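Summary for the funding panel

The consortium committed to producing paired sequence-structure records for every protein in the target list. Below we show the first two records in order, beginning with the earlier of the two.
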Amino acid sequence: MDQVLTQSSGQPAGDPLAQRPSREELQAELLAVPEAPDAPPVPDPPGVEQVLEAALRYVRGRRGADLLAVLLVGSGARRAWTAHSDVDLIALVKGKGEGDEIVRVSNRQVEIRYREYKGVEQDLALVPRLPPLLRKARVLFELEGAGSKLTDKANQRFKNGPPAIGMHEKIRLKAECFHRLGKIEDLSQQPATAEYLLGLFLEALVDDFFRLRGFWPTAPADTLRFIASRDAALADLIEQFLAAPTMPERLGIGRNLALHLFHDIPHPQRVD
C-alpha cells in the first residue's frame, strides 16, 4: 500500500511536529513563581537603642504623670539613620505642652518637642505636615494607647489625601510668591537680607508645589527627588537656583521658578 500512514492528529507518522507537546501540556508543567519575601527591617546603628532609652528616661522624668506618649519621628522612625542624624522626639502631654529643647545623649543630639495631645489631634486635619510625619512615628512610650491611637488617626488622615484648595487660594499663593520676589528685588542692594529672603522664597515655593499639585509634603531629604519624579523641569530649575553663584542669578532663576509653577493660574483681578 502506497498510502501514507497518518496519526490521529492529522500529521504524518514520524513527523517531528507530531512529537511536540501541546500548549495545554506546556502550561501544566509551569510552576507558580513565589512572591518575593519582604525585606527585613534595617537595623538601628549600634548604640541608638541606648540613646533612645536614655532620652525617654529624661522626658519621663521631666513631665512625670503629665506625659501621655513619646513618639520618635523623622529619620529615626524611617530607619534612615546616618552618623550625624538627630533624634527627633514628640512628647505628648495632657496640659500645656508648647516648648522645645535640645539635649545630648552620647554622640547624638536629641530634639524634644512638647505638645498638647488634644491640640495635635485637632491639628491633624489642619496642618499638612502632620499626617505624613506622624503616620510612621515609632511609639516609645504611651499610656492607654494614646500614641498608637494618634498614629492610627494620622495614617487614616494620610490615606484620605491632602485637602484640596480652590482657585481663590491658588491665586493668593501666586500673588504672595511674586510679591516676595518683588521685595527681594527692592532689597537687592542689601545682599545679606536679600540672600536670607531668597532662602525663605524657595521654602515657600516648595510648599506651594505640594499644595497646588495635591501631594502630601515629604521628608526634606526626599523633597527634590520627589519633585523630580513629578515635574523634572521644576526640579532642574531648583537645582540651578541652589547652584547659582550670585544673588542676581538666583533672583532671575527664582522668577523662572515662579513662572513655571504658576503658569496656569491667573493673576489677581484688577479693579482699577
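The next record, for a separate protein in the list, is shown here:
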Amino acid sequence: MPKLLIGLGLALVILTVYTLVDCAVFDRNRIRGLPRWVWIFVIFLVPLIGPLLWLLVGHGRATPTTRSGRSVAPDDDLDFLRGLNGGGSLKTDSGENRPYNDKDQQERIRRMEQDLADLDKNDQAPGTSGTAGVDPTKKKNEPGEGDQPGRRDA
C-alpha cells in the first residue's frame, strides 16, 4: 500500500509540474476562463482538481475557428485574403485607392489573356505551323549546343 501511495503522489507531482509549466508558457490569447496568474494559483493550491481543470477548461484550442466552431483554412478566410493584396484595394489612374471587385479581376484576366495571345501570334512566323524558335537548317538527330543539359562541347 505505501508503494501505491508513493506512486500516486509522484504522478500527482508530475501532473502538477507539467500543468504549471504548460500554463506558464501557453499563448496568452488562447487561455480560457481565468487570467494566467489565477490558473497558476488554482493548479498549485488545489491538488489534482486544479491541473485537471486546466487541461479541460483553461487550455484553449490550437486552431482558429469561425463562429460556427469549425476550423478555417487560410484560403477560405475572407479577412485573410483581403489583407493579401494591400488591403484589397486597387490604385486607379488618378492615384486613389478603391475597393477591388470582380469586374476589375475579370478585366485584368482578359488583358492578360490578350497579351498571351499577342505573344503567341508574334512567336509564330507565317508558314512555320508552330515551330517557332527552331532552326530549319539543323538536322533533327544531330546533337548540338543546348540539346543535352549539363553537357559542354569543346
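Regarding this second record: The two ends are 87 Å apart (CA to CA). Strands lie at 89-91, 97-99.
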